[in-house]
């Protein structure tokens, strides 16, 4: 198996999953992390996660959750011959946040052990659904991932004291409902009853993303869906997701996907138009 050291990560709009069996030499390093959440489950062997205070060794049955913007430095553990792992990059729905408050090993790096008895099988099901033949496979996989996180929450010792602020959820809902509009931070803050500065701080602290980055991510996600599933022109799609300028929209879309909107649409033509494909990445 190829074992490159990964230094970059293409942004994920929906889900991206993998099931790897790696040997010595496999390492992923992203000093600034990524803009999505990463969940890794160790099936066999051991993995090493570096963090600002040292390292975490993950053994069979361990679940590691990494927040957006947190260092990614993980590899086959030095003393291990191999590492079998399942992973998923995802953007949580607003109501999932309460399930993502796990015991922290270091800022942004969390560990859950033990997990529910059949959690590994459920994780495999997420992976199988996403890579299967169902017309709405990403929707099924998202549903399965939500179920997995809910089951993990049953074993989370912090579940009873989860501190996620409901106003952050309301802010996310407001942004999701106004993708086509010109949205200012003041508008979002007023909608949830906070000052702009307080909302900006709270939103970033609890989601790992700024309000503006979350809004743009959701706009690009919606644009990718429209490119995949409709015949709308790039200008129509740009306007639908809140851009006055087709040129600026195309610039931002390419920054997220490394493809222009037309190239992204063209890349989907060999596969079913009912599928929302997203740029691939590794671990």
Features:
single chain; 283 residues; alpha+beta; Jelly Rolls; Arc Repressor Mutant, subunit A; five-stranded mixed beta sheet; disordered C terminus
What do these coordinates show?
The chain has 283 residues and is of the alpha+beta class. It is built from nine helices and eleven strands. The strands form two sheets. A six-stranded antiparallel beta sheet has the order 2-9-4-7-11-10, with helices on one face. The two termini are 14 Å apart.
Radius of gyration based on Cα positions = 19 Å
How many separate helices? 9
If you average the pLDDT, what whole number results? 86
Helix percent reads 25-40%
Strand content: 15-25%
Strand order in space, largest sheet: 2-9-4-7-11-10
Q: What's the helix-strand series?
A: EEEEEEEEEEEHHHHHHHHH
Distance between the termini: 14 Å
CATH superfamily of the largest domain: Regulatory protein AraC
């Amino acid at each position: 198996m190829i074992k490159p050291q990964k230094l970059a990560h293409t942004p994920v709009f929906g889900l991206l999953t993998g099931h790897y069996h790696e040997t010595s030499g496999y390492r992923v390093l992203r000093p600034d992390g990524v803009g999505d959440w990463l969940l890794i489950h160790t099936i066999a062997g051991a993995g090493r996660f570096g963090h600002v205070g040292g390292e975490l060794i993950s053994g069979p049955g361990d679940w590691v959750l990494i927040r957006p913007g947190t260092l990614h430095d993980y590899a086959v553990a030095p003393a291990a011959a191999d590492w079998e792992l399942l992973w998923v990059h995802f953007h949580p729905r607003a109501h999932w946040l309460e399930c993502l408050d796990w015991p922290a090993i270091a800022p942004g790096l969390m560990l859950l052990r033990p997990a529910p008895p059949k959690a590994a099988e459920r994780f495999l099901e997420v992976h199988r659904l996403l890579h299967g033949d169902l017309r709405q496979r990403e929707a099924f996989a998202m549903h399965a991932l939500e179920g997995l996180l809910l089951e993990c929450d049953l074993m989370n010792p912090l579940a009873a004291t989860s501190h996620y602020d409901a106003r952050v959820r309301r802010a996310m809902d407001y942004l999701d409902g106004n993708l086509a509009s010109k949205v200012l931070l003041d508008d979002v803050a007023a909608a949830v009853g906070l000052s702009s500065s307080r909302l900006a701080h709270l939103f970033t602290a609890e989601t790992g993303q700024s309000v503006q980055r979350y809004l743009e991510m959701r706009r690009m996600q919606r644009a990718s869906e429209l490119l995949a599933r409709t015949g709308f022109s790039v200008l129509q799609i740009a306007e639908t997701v809140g851009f006055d300028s087709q040129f600026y929209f195309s610039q931002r879309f390419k920054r997220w996907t490394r493809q222009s909107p037309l190239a992204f649409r063209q890349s989907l033509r060999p596969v079913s138009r009912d599928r929302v494909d997203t740029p691939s990445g590794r671990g």
